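Record type: ASSEMBLY
Status: queued
Input:
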Amino acid sequence: MIGVFDSGVGGLTVLSQIRAQLPDSPILYLADQAHAPYGDLTQARVIERSRLISQWLQTQGCTLVVVACNTATALAIDALRASFDIPIVGVEPGIKPAAIQSLSQRIGILATANTVASDRYLRLLERVLPDIDILSQGCAGLADAIEQQSADLDQLLRRYCQPLIDQGVDQIVLGCTHYPLVKERIARLVGPQVTIVDTSGAIALEVKRRYPQDLAGPQVGAPIRLYTTGSAAEFDRLVCAYPLLAWLSGLAS
Ligand code: DGN
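Status: finished
Output:
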């Protein structure tokens, strides 16, 4: 079984891609909504939550864990890999593909403030071609606004995207797994000259490559189970609200 977690519904964008790649593998998802947003937690706290959740996923029978959260990957994946002997797959902003595709040699990254301030993110930037301008935009409150379906969502998107447009980026990388849920809104805001880069498909391919097949073998139409540390009814309501996730409605407990 594949275990997947995030602070909330964002990681379901990664789960959807994993399902497309591995339709016969059971998936167990945990949304840690009682402790969200991870963008506001200290690194020690994110490591503690990520360890506890990974332990739980392993005791439920998961043989691979996907950290479907850029913030938790940036702050905790090294600690997780040191503590677990099963594969731990993380997510990271698709800076490299965006840099390769960029004609203006200028790309923008949207991510949580915690992600863009992390050592792991800074190391990622060092590996990108030196002649590419990378504009990192920490988006305080954006994942939470998506999670809350806040009325301020468009205003926040405008605040974070406009400076990138003004500076001539032709690629915007979604560096938080919540952001694909509002990809259409971002696309409307930035216009057709800007390509939006989302790495969830690439992450799913990596999961497929590393997933040790369950001893029981593939199960046709394998189950997906969704859990939250918050309110299951609220989680389900949110899942139904985003067209990308509607196929997962009614599965939360
Ligand atoms: N989905 C998480 C991420 O990719 O960073 C959001 C983190 C948060 O809880 N703010």
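Annotation: The radius of gyration is 17 Å.
Annotation: The mean pLDDT is 94.
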